[in-house]
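Input structure tokens:
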């Protein structure tokens, strides 16, 4: 044979090392978890290597299927990414990039060769199927881990409320009761301390009423039709903070499914709660822009700020506040970023894509 006719997999195989090397650089450039966690980057490359192997094997006649054993690596990747707090968008970008690079390499291999267009189209379809089947397996487990975490968060919020009811309401009610007994005792005794005891009863009851108002505002969610704006205002009012709230909501709430608004409300409420409890700010600005395709929100305060090392540590930690906000957002396929300048300001930015949805679909 004078002319060498390479099949597409044979032409691609020698290029895989270079391809993976280039892929590594491009994934690094995505940033996020891939620049934070060397382990995330190396697992992503391992996944890409496996995908390439599956792809080349199928081109050589070994059909790709994701049986339990085959799926396990993709599943592990999805679970690691969820635990590392990776943004789903970043993972999707890495997947898209891999497909794009395989497709480009395949097209280049065909250029000037005898590989037919049909063969190339078939290879592109195979690449697409292998890449997205594995990415999908990773994504299913990623979502289920986040769902579980958000469920745990909701449960622990309930436990927190139960604790508050027990500690704070229980406390002031028993204080009121003790003072009523004292009052009775002093009255029988003809003591002038009776008036003081009644005063104590009154302040204990006032405190109980304030706590109840507080806890009810914690329980309230913006229900279908109830505006995000008024719910956030009600929360801020019940918090009785000295920080002035400047809130604007633009767009139509009917553009987003109510569950989305509910989750976004929970995230914004936690951001506000943090401002009220930690920031010592005089002002907090909240801006929510609801568009037909996405929701963008910013909470910015002029408070004490957070040091960069601490902020990096907080977004990775297992605390419930900030990590909970990130997890809720990721479950909606969105992204949440926190930035701050120590001594000056803290800003939380949230972006969530809104699925095709209409209020009359129900
Ligand atoms: N707006 C803010 N300004 C200053 N510090 C903040 C702000 N938001 C959060 N923090 C800091 O981040 C920490 C973690 O917040 P979070 O995860 O909500 O946990 P928690 O509120 O239970 O402490 C807070 O303890 C606080 O030190
Ligand atoms: Mg908090």
């Amino acid at each position: 044979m004078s002319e060498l006719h390479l099949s597409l997999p044979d032409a691609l195989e020698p290029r895989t090392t270079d391809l993976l090397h280039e892929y590594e650089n491009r994934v690094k450039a995505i940033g996020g978890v891939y620049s934070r966690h060397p382990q995330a980057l190396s697992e992503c490359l391992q996944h890409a290597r496996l995908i390439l192997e599956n792809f080349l094997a199928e081109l050589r006649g070994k059909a790709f299927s994701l049986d339990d054993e085959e799926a396990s690596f993709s599943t592990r990747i999805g679970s690691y990414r969820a635990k590392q707090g990776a943004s789903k968008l970043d993972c999707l970008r890495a997947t898209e990039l891999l497909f794009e690079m395989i497709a480009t390499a395949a097209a280049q291999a065909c250029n000037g060769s005898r590989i037919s267009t049909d063969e190339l189209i078939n290879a592109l379809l195979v690449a697409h199927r292998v890449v997205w089947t594995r990415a999908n397996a990773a994504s299913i487990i990623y979502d289920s881990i986040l769902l579980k975490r958000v469920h745990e968060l909701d449960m622990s919020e309930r436990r927190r409320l139960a604790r508050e009811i027990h500690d704070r309401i229980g406390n002031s009610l028993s204080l009121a009761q003790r003072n009523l007994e004292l009052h009775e005792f002093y009255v029988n005794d003809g003591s002038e301390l009776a008036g003081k005891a009644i005063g104590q009863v009154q302040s204990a009851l006032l405190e109980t009423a304030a706590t109840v108002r507080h806890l009810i505002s914690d329980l309230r969610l913006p229900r279908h039709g109830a505006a995000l704006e008024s719910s956030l205002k009600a929360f801020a009012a019940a918090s009785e903070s000295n920080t002035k709230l400047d809130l604007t909501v633009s767009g139509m709430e009917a553009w987003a499914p109510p569950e989305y608004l509910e989750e976004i409300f929970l995230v914004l409420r936690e951001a506000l709660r943090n401002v009220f409890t930690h920031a010592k700010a005089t002002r907090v600005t909240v801006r929510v822009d609801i568009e037909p395709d996405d929701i963008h929100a910013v909470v910015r305060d002029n408070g004490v700020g957070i040091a960069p090392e601490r902020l990096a540590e907080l977004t990775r930690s297992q605390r419930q506040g900030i990590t909970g906000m990130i997890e809720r957002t990721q479950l909606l396929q969105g992204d949440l970023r926190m930035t701050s300048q120590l001594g000056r300001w803290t800003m939380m930015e949230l972006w969530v894509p809104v699925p095709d949805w209409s209020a009359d679909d129900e």
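Residues 274-275, 278-279, 301, 303-304, 306, 314, 319, 321-322, 346 surround adenosine-5'-diphosphate (ligand 1) (CB under 6 Å). Strands lie at 244-250, 283-290, 294-301, 335-341, 345-353.
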